[in-house]
From TrEMBL:
<comment type="similarity">
    <text>Belongs to the DEAD box helicase family. DEAH subfamily.</text>
</comment>
<dbReference type="GO" id="GO:0003724">
    <property type="term" value="F:RNA helicase activity"/>
</dbReference>
<keyword id="KW-0347">Helicase</keyword>
<dbReference type="GO" id="GO:0005524">
    <property type="term" value="F:ATP binding"/>
</dbReference>
<keyword id="KW-0378">Hydrolase</keyword>
<feature type="domain" description="Helicase C-terminal">
    <location>
        <begin position="208"/>
        <end position="398"/>
    </location>
</feature>
<protein>
    <recommendedName>
        <fullName>RNA helicase</fullName>
        <ecNumber>3.6.4.13</ecNumber>
    </recommendedName>
</protein>
<keyword id="KW-0547">Nucleotide-binding</keyword>
<feature type="domain" description="Helicase ATP-binding">
    <location>
        <begin position="48"/>
        <end position="175"/>
    </location>
</feature>
<dbReference type="GO" id="GO:0016787">
    <property type="term" value="F:hydrolase activity"/>
</dbReference>
<keyword id="KW-0067">ATP-binding</keyword>
<feature type="compositionally biased region" description="Basic and acidic residues">
    <location>
        <begin position="1"/>
        <end position="15"/>
    </location>
</feature>
Amino acid sequence: KPRKKDVTEKSKSVVESKPAVHVPVDRTPEMQASRQKLPIIGEEQVIMETINENAVIIVCGETGSGKTTQVPQFLYEAGYAHGGGIIGVTEPRRVAAISMSKRVAAEMNLTDREVSYQIRYEGNVTPDTHVKFMTDGVLLKEVQQDFLLLKYSTIIVDEAHERSVYTDILIGLLSRIVPLRAKPPVIKVDSRQYPVTIHFNRRTPDDYLTEAYRKTCKIHQQLAEGGILVFVTGQQEVQTLCRKLKKAFPHHKGQVLPNINLNNYSVEPTDEEAEMEQGDNSDARVFDPPPEGCRLCVVATNVAETSLTIPNIRYVVDTGKTKTKFYDKVTGVSTFRITWTSKASANQRAGRAGRVGPGHCYRLYSSAMFNDNFPQFSPPEITRRPVDDLVLQMKDMSIDKVANFPFPTPPDTDQIKAAETLLVSLGALSEPEKPKTFKAKVAKTAPTSKITALGRAMASFPIAPRYARMLAMGHQQELLPYVIAAVAALSVDQLFVEFQAPADAQNEDEDLKRRIQNINNVKRMWAGTGNSLLLGDLMVLLKAVGACEYEGLSPEFCARYGIRSKAMKEVRKLRTQLTNTVNMALPEVNLCVDPKLTPPTDRQAKLLRQIVATGLADHVARLMPDLPPGVEGDSKKHKHAYQCTELEDPVYIHPTSALYHKDKEYVVYQHIHETSRPYMKGVVAVEAEWLPLLAPYHCTFSKPLEDPPPSWDAETGQVKCHRTSTFGRCGWALPAVCV
Ligand code: ADP
Ligand code: MG
């Protein structure tokens, strides 16, 4: 916990110890020449003088002007890495942290021992590291160990305008670490932006993807050379569009038309940071010039809007759409919705066409649509997702009054309340004390809950609090390797490819349909019988993890079973990290780090179901009875329908789930995602009599029953008796158990 005094001393010492040395960098002549072209180079002196005189500065400039790659080098040359401190740079995305560290190392002619990166699972930081690129989440974790960030001489918060949740919290924390004595100066870097002519569609078409295809073909066939960058909303659309373009312009020699060199370059908006789907070297392909006689065409999602600059783009085709995950703050139900992007990001997209010369941006929507329906900016992420992990981390940093924290945009009080309730129910926070005195009641200061010992243990794991709770429960019966594998698999988004039959159904799609069917059959087979089946989707995940490790994560194997091999690699890394964390905290456990995993036995599967139930105790659903004959109502809506505690309307088990149409009375689910219906994802069957013991927080207990009579536990000296209970908001009657 910081003392005020230290903070001022530290910030002073940083400001006052501005280094006077010049540290030479031995760049190659080619690198030197390409740097010289960047607009920011002309601002070096101004930027460095401002940094030397201020605790905080803001550097503003167009994408591609050189902020990310050059500012760390300015600092390095000015000696900021030679007083014993590191120059730290945070990025909201892992891919940017890695690729930028590589780029800066190459520009400076240094190795990755000196210019390094650290992301959630891996890094190459050494004692010789001078410049360290990391994800914002990594620095946030470091603040918990070292509130004053003494390791660093400078922190660069890159892409601060993107307002990622962790970046927002970092800014709030930094504002406490470095008292802002005056408004930070803003340096604007003028970039050489060529004019971009904006062409609006006269009318806004219904089908933007077909329109994008049409426009891309037209540009390619009729307009002078120069790369085309098309913005669509997701992986599926990238693939559909690329397939159609490849078909229209097959790539072979002797072709009259100019060939098209397609690069699909996309990212799904997941809860995780953005990642490229095309394997690790796809960014290199985008930076390479296209083959002779070819036109570069990049179909991308909004990852290409800012953080990565693709060279030689002259034409931008902008659908104006973006896919965002919406999350209902009250019910927790998530949906992906395709909406208009903001004016700010549409302008960013257009700007991509003016990097090498005058360019054109084709907006596939009308100017009236743009003016009337596009919001000015996108809302920051912190207002769009649950904040339970953030609240736990902040409580672990002794920031108890989360609502008072200087967030750039504070989350809703409802969001914070929901997070605190969940954390109390998981045992991570103590129940807030009720105001005792009249004075306290009048003062209306919200009672604050404090972190518990269990909560501290949970906060040490880099996973969502409910999964951390499962880990804490798993410390028995040699279950830890399974629990670790399970929570790792649950933490990584979309382990299985989510197939959607393409809208333009054609012959080739018969193959796809057959493949989907095969994969679903395999999943059903993997679920097995007995407790294995009841462990449901989690069993499928465990089997998938085990089988992939057995096959050495072979890409062919993954492809055959519809597993995203990239996600599986992430599961492996997360498992290793969690195993190491457990081994460090509990040396007597001494878990094996070999990722091989045999399927759990029936007894283990049953225990795993109980462990999962503790982490998902607020996500219990109960099968709705069929409508009795003769009763009015939508019987189809009732068939296989479940009632959950958050929603009035019924919810369903997804057809790809192992428990689809199995009609188990009680289930827990990972989350509800609404597509054509509200579907529960990650479903595991639980038993009614477990709930009073595993989820007492959600139960209202009866008075002790007389029959059977109370028993006396000789060991603890406690009297135990049977009670019945009702569960949750719906008041489901649970059987009597001894509590
Ligand atoms: P900013 O942060 O201001 O958006 P950057 O520092 O990321 O700008 O980029 C500056 C220039 O360096 C851009 O012109 C970009 O194309 C180039 N660049 C960045 N990464 C690479 C790379 N891996 N290979 C080649 N050029 C790169
Ligand atoms: Mg940048």
